[in-house]
Write a sequence for this structure.
């Protein structure tokens, strides 16, 4: 440290603690080194930049980009450019690497796995010992003032470092290897202004554009997503909750013959009324070539009836061996009579099933009949 | 289940129907009744419920006086 009457950093912190903003010199008074240093430090924009701008990379610059991880050499490339760290600008004139950068104090092997790459600002004091020009060799021949120089080092740390003089450049992973750029790019008021203007679009301000579709907590506002926002074909079966599509949501005529899967419409899904379900004995034929007949009335109404009828052979079913064959048949048909029952003035239709048994033994059949609703 | 018996005036069973469901417009399920034929509805016994309709027709007749089913005599030579 130079030869000061008071540590400049301590003097600055003391002045800030007292809310001092300027140093005013008075006539006829001696000038003290600590007051000159304090005047310079109070006027330095570093504190303002550190507090109100933060670390970052200026717009249009690619300074200190990390790339090309070389696992064998424990190295990676650091791009030339600028960065603002702890309120001070660091400039790298030419590309360098982790292993060949100007300061190598903390350079070592890359940790395996994920680690953070930081640009660490290192202000150092320069005396005439490092820079002979500071010894004023052409006139007073002694050192009158020292200089502060901003050095830097790119360091790798598995642990996160949260300090204003550490600027996170990237996260690297030796698996891959992979580099994730973490620099804060476009750090200039103009760049931020341009981005806001671009984001604003045709809206009068950015908030107007955002509230058009987003709630205050960032979720989509109600009724924001309409048909136009959904790409054709984007709503697939997996995105529809089970039971979400109900009958009221189907447009009239939305379900066509094409949209019905084969075998998907069963009798149970049709509006219907069961009009007969029962087993009936059909008498035996009196002789060969003759028929035993049973007539089953299904319903008696005047209106048309759309009937689904099944007639099923129940028995007899003789117990046979696997080798023995069995084949017995009967026939049935629908019969519609127009009748006028006694005591009534109106006609009605009598819908019946006629079952004919050619066998000389009686049989049992089950008849099941549904009437489908026409409307 | 309801049991409907179609029979003649002598009690011979012409047809039997074990009905699970029937349209309200009908009194019984049999059509084409001839003169002298009748239909009666009975509550089947558990034994009768187990028989098919044609078996009921073969094994029973109608006592026309009491309107009840009665077992027919087994033909000679049968158990």
């Amino acid at each position: 440290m130079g030869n000061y009457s008071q540590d400049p950093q301590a003097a600055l912190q003391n002045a800030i603690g007292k809310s001092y903003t300027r140093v005013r010199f008075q006539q006829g008074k001696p000038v003290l080194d600590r007051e000159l240093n304090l005047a310079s430090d109070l006027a330095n924009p570093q504190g303002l930049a550190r507090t109100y701008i933060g670390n970052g990379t200026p717009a249009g610059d690619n300074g200190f980009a990390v790339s090309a991880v070389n696992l064998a050499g424990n190295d990676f490339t650091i791009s030339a450019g600028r960065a603002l760290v702890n309120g001070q600008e660091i400039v790298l004139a030419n590309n360098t690497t982790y292993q060949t950068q100007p300061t190598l104090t903390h350079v070592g092997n890359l940790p395996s796995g994920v680690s953070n790459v930081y640009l660490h600002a290192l202000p150092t004091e320069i005396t005439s010992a490092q820079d002979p020009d500071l010894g004023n060799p052409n006139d007073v021949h002694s050192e009158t003032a020292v200089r502060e120089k901003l050095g830097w080092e790119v360091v790798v740390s598995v642990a996160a470092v949260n300090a204003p003089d550490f600027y996170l450049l990237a996260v690297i992973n030796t698996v891959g290897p992979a580099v994730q750029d973490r620099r804060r790019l476009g750090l200039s008021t103009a760049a931020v202004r341009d981005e806001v203007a671009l984001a604003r679009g045709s809206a009068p301000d950015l908030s107007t554009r955002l509230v058009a579709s987003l709630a205050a907590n960032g979720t989509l506002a109600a009724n924001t997503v309409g048909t136009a926002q959904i790409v054709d074909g984007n709503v697939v079966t997996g995105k529809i909750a089970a039971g979400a599509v109900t009958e009221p949501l189907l447009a009239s005529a939305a379900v066509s013959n094409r949209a019905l899967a084969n075998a998907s419409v069963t009798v149970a899904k049709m509006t219907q009324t069961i009009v007969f379900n029962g087993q009936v004995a059909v008498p035996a034929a009196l002789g060969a070539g003759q028929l035993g007949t049973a007539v089953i009335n299904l319903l008696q109404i005047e209106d048309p009836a759309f009937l689904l009828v099944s007639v099923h052979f129940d028995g007899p079913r003789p117990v046979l061996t696997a080798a023995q064959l069995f084949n017995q048949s009967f026939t049935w048909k629908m019969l519609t009579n127009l009748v006028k029952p006694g005591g009534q003035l109106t006609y009605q239709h009598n819908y019946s099933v006629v079952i004919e048994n050619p066998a000389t033994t009686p049989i049992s059949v089950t008849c099941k009949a549904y009437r489908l609703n026409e409307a | 289940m309801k049991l409907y018996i179609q029979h003649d005036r002598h009690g011979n069973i012409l047809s039997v129907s074990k009905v699970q469901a029937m349209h309200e417009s009908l009194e019984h399920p049999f059509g084409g009744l001839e003169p002298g034929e009748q239909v009666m509805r009975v509550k089947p016994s558990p034994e009768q419920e187990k028989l098919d309709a044609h078996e009921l027709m073969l094994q029973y007749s109608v006592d026309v006086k009491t309107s009840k089913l009665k077992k027919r005599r087994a033909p000679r030579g049968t158990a």
User: Anything to note?
Assistant: DSSP finds two helices and five strands in chain B. The mean pLDDT of chain B is 90.
